[in-house]
Amino acid sequence: MLKKILLTHENVDISSFEVVTSFMKTNGLGYSPKRGEINTYLKDAPEDYLAVKVAVIFGIFGGCRREELYNVNVGDVVGSGSSMIVSVPKTKNGRRRMFSIVDDEGGMDYLGTIRKYYHWIASILNKIIK
């Protein structure tokens, strides 16, 4: 990604610089957040980011692509007490996919976050309809 950014914005092709390429390969390709950092974000982020929190939860449990997240509707999420079943209607390969979300034993309230988002969306829709 760094190569592409430099090529696009600065018109510099670093593929001819073997030392730079070697340095980038040895130091890793990118940053990948740890599960603890994600859980900290889910706990500490303000409620203004409720939609992002739900997208992160769907990403953790379902491995959803951004197009798949876009296609999920409120009716595709079915809750039953201690778990939720999410149905992804349109996937990359054209098959409907399902996954379940359960609360973490470590105290993460994933289901509570999704329920807050659901009630928030419902209140917005009620204001629009009235």
TrEMBL record:
Keywords: DNA recombination. One of its GO terms (molecular function) is DNA binding. It comes from the Eukaryota. GO terms for biological process: DNA integration; DNA recombination. This is Uncharacterized protein.
